[in-house]
Amino acid sequence: MILLTGLVWIFISADRTNSATAGRIPAPQKGFLAPEFKLETSDSQSISLTDYRGKAVLVNLWATWCPPCRTEMPIIEKVYQGYQDQGLIVLGVNSTNQDDPTAVTPFVKQYGITFPILLDVNGEAASLYELRSLPTSFFIGRDGIIKEVVVGSMSEALLRANIEEIIK
Questions:
Q1: Residue 28 preceded by cis peptide, ω within 30
Q2: Number of helices and strands (H, E) in the chain?
Q3: Domain with 71 in it: what CATH number?
Q4: Residue 82 DSSP class
Q5: Cβ–Cβ under 8 Å, residues 144 and 138
Q6: pLDDT score recorded for residue 25
Q7: Could you read off the pLDDT of 96-111 as tens digits, one per residue?
Q8: Enclosing H/E stretch for 126
């Protein structure tokens, strides 16, 4: 009887209109809409992910104390310089709630970072993106859908391959 009730429920509740979410709900994984966040830079400029809808976006979550972050940050900057004219946006989201806020500006100057660095003071973005390890990068297509997630440091080749996919 329970099995029959379950089958009836499945039949009744099935989506026959093909109006399922098709990845259009925010979730921090490949194939889903990138969760929206609004953070400030160190000079109090407010930046929202939706400001860049229609652009290819790399969201990189990092911290100054993280050795793999220190390794990949110059690579991200180099690749950003090569692709920004093709519409690439890089948003470096510093996990400020896990970092020393006074170390961010010297870090940015030391590595010559020119893309926006956002301060995740309250851990909002870390929570929305279910951050488990630093660095973590989200490659977001022009449609706002996450095309790839990379946990850990990236080589230049991996970074370029993923950027090529999102700038198409």
A1: no
A2: 5, 7
A3: 3.40.30.10
A4: H
A5: no
A6: 67
A7: 999 999 999 999 999 9
A8: helix 124-128
pLDDT band at 44 (very low <50, low <70, confident <90, very high): very high
Does residue 138 form part of some domain? yes
d(CA 143, CA 49): 12
Residue 55: partners with Cβ closer than 8 Å, 6 or more residues away: 87, 88, 89, 142
Each residue of 11-39: b (16+ CB within 10 Å) or e?
A: eeeeeeeeeeeebeeebbeeebbbbebeb
Report pLDDT for 24: 63
Are 140 and 32 in contact by the 8 Å Cβ rule? The answer is: no
Secondary structure letter of residue 96 according to DSSP: G
At 32, the amino acid letter reads F
Q: 140 pLDDT exceeds 90? A: yes
Distances (CA, A) of 15 to 18, 20, 33, 167: 6, 7, 21, 33
Count structural domains, the chain: 1
